[in-house]
Amino acid sequence: MHNPAQNREMARDAADLEFTDPLTGLGNQRRFHDKVDRLIRERADDPAPFAIGLLDLDGFKPINDLFGRSAGDFILQQVALRLNAAMDGNSFVARVGADEFAFLYPMIFSEEAVSQKARMLIEILSAPYDIGERTARLSASVGCSLFYSGDETTSHLVNKAETALYHAKRSGRGGVVVYTREMEEAAKRVTRIEQALRRAVSAGEVEPHFQPIVDLKSGTTIGFETLARWTDRDLGFVSPATFIPIAEERGIIAPLSQLVLRKATEAARTWPEHLFLSFNLSPSQLVDQNTGLQVLSILNRTGFDPRRLEIEITETGLMTDPASAEKIVDDLRRVGIRVSLDDFGTGQSSLGRLREFNFDKLKIDRAFVSSILEDKPSEHIIRAILAMCEGLGMDVVAEGIEEQAQADRLVQFGCAGGQGFLFGKPKNAEATLGYLRDSLRGAQRVRSA
Question: Does one domain contain both 210 and 172?
């Protein structure tokens, strides 16, 4: 039988275990939240500021893959030792995720001071780590937030630090970001757009617009690219550059894409049969194995011939999960859908991808086209792309053509297809039908003349 003192000690040990990270011996997430809760209560009557931060190791997964799990654990223990040694008597550090640490600075009162502390921690972690014979190097990103008023909770503070960390990681390795009011406004706006977009998608209020793709030599229209357009009843017109990334990030892209494809194929079904419809798939759709089935079921429902559909994917989309992308591309090609590589030359894929994926078409990014007349390197890149596509038996479309001189230069280099404001801006289904009737009448007049 244990005596009461032993029982108390055992209870204390059990509580300690509950609040301790077993690998590093640091406090865990519960201990961190407990410390911050307590500090908020202490300062309730006189809310003097204090700072918290989340530190995330950049590129830790490759270290585990390269050196093995036990080396990864050893590095995490070293990181914990270094961070703990950098804390003064008031400060506190905990391990709150696989490769994420949190710190609390009760005596730091300004954004400038916490930013300085965070940079010092990154510096401390950047010294090499010895793993047996080899050494590894690490960098880290940090997001910080400050407590200013008594009505803030621990979870509110942590959310703010998470938002700041997200911004730090987006701006590259080794960054420090302190949460600001502007970020709060930006985050609120994103949430507002996300909620409105969810409503608009379920109400079917996002519309396809169509931009002509032409044969550069003859100037005749050979197809259209589908582009999503959205005007909200409260927010007004929202640019796709704003709402598409939000749809990607917040998991709305699949239903949005299905809605636009359904409306686009319904509209294009009545067009002359020689015209193709081009449609973009986003990177996250190339990771979702349901994507192929979703596209095919929409074509079945709308009665649109799959051989008239071209799916555009970007290099970035390919790189996220090449095996998944390849399977989806194969599913689509099996029913006669053509696949086109969009924005070529601006992503991070290798030329080897072109061989592996057997694309039907490649689109030259507008960045090269816009400078073709005055920039020799752009001219050489376009010539090289065209020569390569000829060798691989791929069609080519140059995007972003705005001047006749650009179109003439592209024809001179042997580029067959083109797209851009020179030939037409994206228009809704009704206006596109009008455009097709006009061009048909124009062609008939030419024939009868």
Answer: no
